[in-house]
Amino acid sequence: MSAPAIGTLNNSPKQGGKSASAWLKLRELPVTVALVVLVVVTAVINPLFLSPQGMKDLLLNATIMMLLAAGQTMVIVTRNIDLSVGSILGLVAFGTGSIFAANPNMPIVLVVLIGMVFGAVLGSLNGLLTVWAKVPSLVITLGTLYVFRGLNNAWAGPKQHFAGDRPQAFGNLSVNTVLGMPIITLVAVIVVIILAIFMIGSRPGRDLYAIGSDPEAAKLFGINVSRRVFTAFLINGALAGLAGVLYASRFNAVGATTGSGLELDVVAAAVVGGVAIFGGSGTVIGATIGAILLNTITSSLTALRVDKFWQQAIVGVLIITAILIDRLASLRHAKNLREKEGRNV
Known about the structure:
CATH topology: ABC transporter involved in vitamin B12 uptake, BtuC
Order of helices and strands: HHHHHEHEEHHHHEHHH
CATH class: Mainly Alpha
CATH architecture: Orthogonal Bundle
């Protein structure tokens, strides 16, 4: 396949205005509409749902998932997946508690940087094993999920770090607000915007879409696939580390089980937000909206006193629907390409 074909291989936002608009309608618009409808209906039934405290709780509940889904998007776009993010978050969260327990006067910014570096190291291990061993990332990260979780169990044991062990200023990150938005949520939004600009507006970010569309064609186009995939895992790990630090600020206790089970929720948020599970398309913004939607569903159904089983069932239906929409969009795109080629013959 010749190099010029790379431009036709993906549905990334780097295309012209017309294709970007069509892409937006197929992917981000439906989940946004679903989120708005869900909030409005719930607020009509339960007016307290949109009270200032209710909105604050919604944002806080979605903050951690927003960061994790944004990082996971970078990996999924390259036709990979990282199932270890929950374990990375748990390790960093307990490490954060341990740092403050040993030195309560440690600057918060320094703790955040330490957490992100720790997460980046763990994420880079996933990336290195994936690109070096040429083993599917699903297998690699399933293994590191248990390795990292085992390390956290050995480190933490029965011990937990509670809110009283941390500085008041650190806990206030989840209490204080700026323009009605919790500080940790504001941090997450800023990070998501930066990552979205990187994915759309930079050559390395656009390369990730090309890799996900067709890795072999990406190589012919001169893209260093191994380096780009490794970088995606590293950044994803750093964001999981940041999420771990913010988790320690948000919740009252962190221990050996912190972050367990989050990995599947993260993948679900990305897929529901329009990130193609087979790579090549999707955006950080869409994944973030997906994360907010899934958390809002849980909060809405809880406010409406719906059984937890139905909450899980609805999330499952959303995932299946998102995959079907993605499949239909891919078939439509392929059909359009064939028709265009037929007219050019």
